[in-house]
Design brief:
The chain is an alpha+beta fold. The chain folds into two domains: about 100 residues, 2-Layer Sandwich (Phosphorylase Kinase, domain 1), CATH 3.30.200.20; about 190 residues, Aminoglycoside phosphotransferase (APH), C-terminal lobe (Aminoglycoside 3'-phosphotransferase, Chain: A, domain 2, Alpha-Beta Complex). Helices cover about 45% and strands about 15% of the residues. The chain has a five-stranded antiparallel sheet, with helices on both faces. Helix 9 packs antiparallel against helix 11. It starts with 5 loop residues before the first helix and ends with a helix.
């Protein structure tokens, strides 16, 4: 557990507003990339709540500027009309805490995995992702984000490492290598990088998109493929189709012929992770492996018949 002293907390909240006092930080679970705390303090208007986010060491080693990049992106997204946590305070000086950190507005709400109406839910998710992808890069600068070039995509396909052949990783990579570079392309857009129901908070019918650590600029179907795989595990194949159809209706000019390849790219994210994602539950793990196989089989069949 990341330790923060009362003195450090007081320095953080007074940096936000000198009138803030009596800070309390409650650690939250579930943050894979960051240590996350609910930060509460007193003000003249009553209790104020924020989220304090401190990137984990393994993330900082790979992305040393991750905090300032995400903070700047949140500012850009707010200006573009995307509902995200409000960027409140950034500190990369290492003078208050030994690591860079940021404070963002507290988001009331919850993630939804069992919606009352799955069709309405996935269509809403598709429209949110469409709005992200349709951000005008000439009006809202995202050039500070990682640019995923053809070379970087190629490296992610061909890199040498231990293969998880319980998900047919070698076979999947061989198919992708054989057909790289993919024949069908779209112009690069702002990518969320990990878009799925767990990264959308709902307060009634008001969504807030969170966790922008993996954001980049690249092929829009990368986000779509990942969302499709995640939705398969959460809601099943019918909802995957409904999500895809709604996204396509919102983005009719994109070329979707390459989607099976991006489905396969998304499927690689599960390598050596399914057991962890299933929280050690044997039944859930077997279900996830079955759905993953169906997802890969469907993509392989589409590639085969289109060839």
């Amino acid at each position: 557990m990341y330790e923060i002293t009362t003195e450090q907390l007081e320095k953080i909240v007074t940096s936000i507003d000198p009138s803030y006092s009596s800070p309390v930080a409650i650690p939250l679970t579930g943050g894979y990339s960051s240590h996350v705390f609910r930060l509460s303090c007193h003000s003249s208007e009553g209790q104020m709540d924020f989220a304090l986010r401190i990137p984990k060491l393994e993330v900082l080693k790979l992305l040393p500027n991750v905090v300032s990049t995400e903070f700047r992106l949140l500012e850009t997204l707010t200006a573009s009309g995307i509902q995200v946590p409000l960027a409140v305070f950034l500190d990369t000086s290492l003078k208050t805490l030994p690591d860079p950190f940021m404070v963002v507005g507290w988001v009331e709400g919850q993630t939804i995995f069992q919606p009352e109406d799955s069709f309405v839910f996935v269509k809403h998710l598709a429209r949110i992702l469409s709005k992200i992808h349709q951000i005008d890069k000439t009006k809202h600068d995202v050039s500070f984000l990682p640019q995923i070039t053809d070379d970087l995509y190629r490296e992610s396909i061909v890199r040498e490492k231990e293969m998880d052949d319980s998900i047919r990783e070698s076979e999947i990579r061989n198919v992708l290598k054989q057909d790289w570079p993919f024949q069908y392309r779209n112009d690069s857009v702002l990518l969320h990088g990990d878009y799925w129901p767990g990264n959308v908070m709902w307060n009634g019918d008001r969504p807030t998109v969170i966790d922008w650590v993996d954001s980049a600029v690249g092929e829009p179907l990368e986000d779509v493929g990942n969302a499709r795989m995640e939705l398969l595990w959460v809601l099943g194949p019918e909802m995957v189709d409904a999500f895809t159809q709604e996204y396509q209706s919102q983005n009719p000019t994109l070329d979707y012929r390459g989607l099976p390849y991006w489905d396969l790219m998304a499927s690689l994210r599960a390598a050596f992770k399914i057991r962890k994602w299933a929280d050690g539950n044997d039944k859930r793990e077997q279900e996830m492996r079955t759905w993953h196989k169906q997802f890969v089989d469907a993509a392989m069949e589409k590639i085969k018949t289109s060839g």
